[in-house]
């Protein structure tokens, strides 16, 4: 005869088993769908490129070497892969500048929205989400129509006699930044707004009552309280911005490669899939390190502010 | 009211599916986007009672990679001449022997036995063309039959030139401009090519494919381009001229091949034969705006193409034409490195 304790233990074991079995399909799918493709990319990065695309099943560290080092094709010397570093840095710089620009535009926007009456807030929120209704490519081409030489801005400037010849905006770094800021702005506004909405504005009033200046209120009260929203928004903007492909190509004119172009080249005309895979993993690592550093830093700052 | 619409939609869908079922078969074509004349396809469907489905691709590399994975369900693909030997070598194509087909007699002699498919064992010509220089003569009136427009840009065009970022084509043009042979592995020549490209780039405004619209709007005043694209630009703006560079310009051709994994082989063969008919070939040209390599098709060509300088290469320029080939992997690797350095 089993004791009551044994029965209970047995039941618990069965319960655990059932739970594992029930969640197994989900776990398997998560593993296969999330990790599987990445493993393939990792394996491919360690193989030899096929003559005309694809890979040969032959181990080679060459791809990883050429991510960081390059052999000069003319004098055969080995040096740091300057071209890759330049391209990586260009993409990272663009992602950082885009994050700062969207923050500068998005923070006041979110503040404005959060301080409206409850009814009108919904309208503003609705307006912010409208750009998501159309495809990214279409939004980018809309920006192109505005800033091109025969576009709206230049036509107005010329009609008003402010300039005599069109100002070249399209195909410049400014054009890329305008496009990126426009495309990613909602991703910054929405999380900040979500934090800002929960903000207890009585604290702001209390701050003024205690003779805080406007800037002090912003810096010491509002900003610390909406920090989670700012962090979330920055992450949401930074990650896609670092891999941005469409916007820099369409507005920048494609003269200077972005990270994504460099990777695409390896899978397309360059026919070096292992190098493409190695570059992709490098990007992931960079993003991960940047995020960890950012989140840890931001977390520490929060403790300091108490 | 809503259920009525739904019912009608279902009815129509049923009708459409039974319509397909009445056809004797299907044909799945994998081709470049915006390249296949719907009129010619309709004619083929009616003649042979076959339902044709067209799927687009945007580059030779995409098409090759996808077909190589297998299980695509496509019967026909249209690779460029540079890629045809790879498709053959990788065993992706079915030897349908178009050289023995009824309509093969119409194929122009210069395209009947090309190096990329000796004896036309696999492929049928779909279109061919050239890669040259397009200039808006309102912006630049000087001689433009030279790659110098792109690589040694005259002052009037500085900051207004576009380059279509097709690596193989740009390397071909630059190699010709410095006096080398295509696909050369001569480091001295390649070094000149690299230096030329790097020095030329500051004068370019962009490197993109979307030339028709940008030349039309005036964002570009000159560009390297395909001849069919140039034709469309001139029809929109008569000041835009196409030029054949005297240093040597590339010839290309796209070719219809049947895949080894094709399920509708007979229909695919019928299609290969069908498009070698002069009237049908002209129909294809009327849509994609390139020449078609079928003798006798000029009778049926649209009026604006018959004597178009973009389609009919002038006698004086013919000597400078050269069919582009696929460079060996080692050269391709050097090209990629130069290309990365150019665009860094």
Automatic annotation (TrEMBL), chain A:
Q: Which residues form the ABC transmembrane type-1 domain?
A: 88-296
Any Pfam family from its record, for instance, is BPD_transp_1
Q: Where are the transmembrane segments?
A: 20-47, 87-111, 123-147, 167-193, 229-253, 273-295
Q: What are the protein's UniProt keywords? A: Cell membrane, Membrane, Transmembrane, Transmembrane helix, Transport
How does this protein sit in the membrane?
Multi-pass membrane protein
Q: Which CDD domains match?
A: TM_PBP2 (cd06261)
The cross-references to PROSITE patterns, in alphabetical order and at most eight, read:
ABC_TM1
Per UniProt, subcellular location reads as: Cell membrane
Family designation:
Belongs to the binding-protein-dependent transport system permease family. CysTW subfamily.
Protein name stated in the entry: ABC transporter permease
């Amino acid at each position: 005869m089993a004791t009551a304790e044994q029965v209970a233990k047995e039941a618990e074991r069965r319960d655990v088993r059932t739970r594992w079995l029930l969640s197994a399909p989900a776990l398997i799918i998560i593993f296969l769908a999330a990790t599987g493709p990445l493993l393939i990319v990792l394996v491919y990065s360690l193989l030899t490129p096929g003559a005309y695309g694809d890979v040969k099943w032959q181990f080679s560290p060459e791809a990883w070497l050429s991510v960081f080092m390059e052999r000069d094709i003319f004098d055969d010397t080995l040096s740091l892969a300057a071209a890759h570093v330049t391209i990586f840095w260009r993409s990272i710089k663009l992602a950082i500048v885009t994050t700062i620009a969207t923050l500068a535009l998005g923070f006041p926007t979110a503040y404005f929205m959060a301080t409206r009456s409850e009814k009108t807030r919904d309208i503003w929120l609705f307006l912010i989400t409208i750009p998501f209704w159309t495809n990214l490519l279409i939004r980018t081409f809309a920006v192109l129509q505005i800033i091109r030489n025969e576009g709206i801005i230049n036509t107005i400037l010329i009609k008003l006699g402010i300039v005599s010849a069109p100002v070249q905006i399209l195909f410049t770094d400014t054009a890329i930044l305008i496009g990126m800021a426009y495309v990613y702005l909602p991703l910054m506004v929405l999380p900040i707004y979500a934090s800002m909405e929960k903000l207890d504005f009585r604290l702001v009033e209390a701050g003024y009552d205690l003779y805080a200046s406007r800037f002090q209120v912003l810096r010491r009260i509002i900003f610390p309280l909406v920090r989670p929203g700012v962090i979330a928004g920055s992450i949401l903007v930074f990650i896609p911005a670092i891999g941005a492909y469409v916007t820099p190509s369409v507005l920048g004119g494609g003269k200077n490669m972005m990270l994504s172009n460099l990777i695409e080249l390896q899978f397309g005309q360059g026919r070096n899939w292992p190098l493409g895979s190695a570059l992709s993993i490098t990007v992931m690592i960079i993003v991960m390190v940047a995020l960890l550093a950012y989140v840890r830093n931001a977390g520490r700052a929060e403790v300091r502010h108490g | 009211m809503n259920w009525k619409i739904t019912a009608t939609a279902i009815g129509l869908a049923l009708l459409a599916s039974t319509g397909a079922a009445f056809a004797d078969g299907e044909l799945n074509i994998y081709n470049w986007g915006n390249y296949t004349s719907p009129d010619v396809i309709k004619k083929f469907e009616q003649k042979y009672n076959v339902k044709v489905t067209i799927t687009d691709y945007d580059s030779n590399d995409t098409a090759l990679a996808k077909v190589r994975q297998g299980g695509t369900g496509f019967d026909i693909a249209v690779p460029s001449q540079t890629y045809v030997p790879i498709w053959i070598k990788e065993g992706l194509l079915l030897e349908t022997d178009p050289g023995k087909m009824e309509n093969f007699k119409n194929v122009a002699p210069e395209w009947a036995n090309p190096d990329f498919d000796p004896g036309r064992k696999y492929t049928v010509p779909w279109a061919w063309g050239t890669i040259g220089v397009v200039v808006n003569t309102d912006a630049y009136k000087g001689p433009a039959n030279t790659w110098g427009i792109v690589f040694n840009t005259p002052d009037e065009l500085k900051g207004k030139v576009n380059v279509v970022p097709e690596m193989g084509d740009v390397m071909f043009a630059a190699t010709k401009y410095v006096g080398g042979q295509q696909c050369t592995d001569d480091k001295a020549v390649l070094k000149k090519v690299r230096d030329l490209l790097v020095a030329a780039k500051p004068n370019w405004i962009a490197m993109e494919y979307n030339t028709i619209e940008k030349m039309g709007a005036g964002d570009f005043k000159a560009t390297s381009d395909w001849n069919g694209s140039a034709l469309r630009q001139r029809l929109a703006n008569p000041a835009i001229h196409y030029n054949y560079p005297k240093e040597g310009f590339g010839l290309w051709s796209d070719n219809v091949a049947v895949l080894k994994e094709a399920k509708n082989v007979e229909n695919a063969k019928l299609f290969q034969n069908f498009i070698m008919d002069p009237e049908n070939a002209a129909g294809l040209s009327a849509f994609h705006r390139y020449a078609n390599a079928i003798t006798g098709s000029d009778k049926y060509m649209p009026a604006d193409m018959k004597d178009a300088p973009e389609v009919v290469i002038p006698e004086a320029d013919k000597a400078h034409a050269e069919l582009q080939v696929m460079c060996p992997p080692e050269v391709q690797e050097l090209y990629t490195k130069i290309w990365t350095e150019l665009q860094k």
